[in-house]
Amino acid sequence: MDIPKGFDIFPIGYVHSTLKERSGAPRQGWEGAPDARLKILPAFVEGLDGIQSGQDIWIFTWLHESQRSVLKVHPRGDVLNPMLGVFATRSPDRPNPIGLHRAKVLSVDADGRLHVQGLEAIDGTPVIDIKPVLERGSDS
Amino acid sequence: MDIPKGFDIFPIGYVHSTLKERSGAPRQGWEGAPDARLKILPAFVEGLDGIQSGQDIWIFTWLHESQRSVLKVHPRGDVLNPMLGVFATRSPDRPNPIGLHRAKVLSVDADGRLHVQGLEAIDGTPVIDIKPVLERGSDS
Fold this sequence. Notes:
Strand content of chain A: 25-35%
Order of helices and strands of chain A: EEEEEEEEE
Shape of chain A: globular
Structural class of chain A: mainly beta
Oligomer: homodimer
């Protein structure tokens, strides 16, 4: 494959969750996912300034257990679903395994601990970015 | 700074747009952004199978002109706005400069060309992932 030069992305923190294995994780946050904690690394804690309890955020993760060479999947892992391209699905297996999770902030503290409601990412998943959910247009 | 080992992310395609410079780009897709074309690289075209005209997708980009050492900004670049942490804003300047754009698919062809409505990314921006917008829960 003729792949152009890549970029280096690094963890800004990690997910701490009672979900320990991918096989036990819900497919989406609204499908019974537990509350979880994000621990943001000291070098990046300043970047949290202004995030408030009660607001909705986008959490971007690096789905580190994914298979990056996969381009077609049975949606939701069910062989009865016809195969689709990974970009038409939410499969964690994809060339750049970025997870996108919407969650409500329950609390945030000065040490970089964010408590969030309903996150389907497993324990130890690297967090790579956080953005506020905007109220109109592209987000809602 | 004590930063853990990173991950390699690579372009799956590029944005082709009439927007040529960051200074002329709208802040959000609904603020007058033009329609644009994504050209997905041949190695990844198979991953588009199942994407349909009229559906809404999330386009993930790598904001290659961003400053990655920035942790606080004046929102929307306006010094009258009090400084906030980058994770509380949509600033393109952030440790991992991932862009998140919601857009409607106008057309898609077998050669990996996706025509989308209202994209604020500038010409030449690398595309790193595409996901369908889901109709409930974490997306809507």
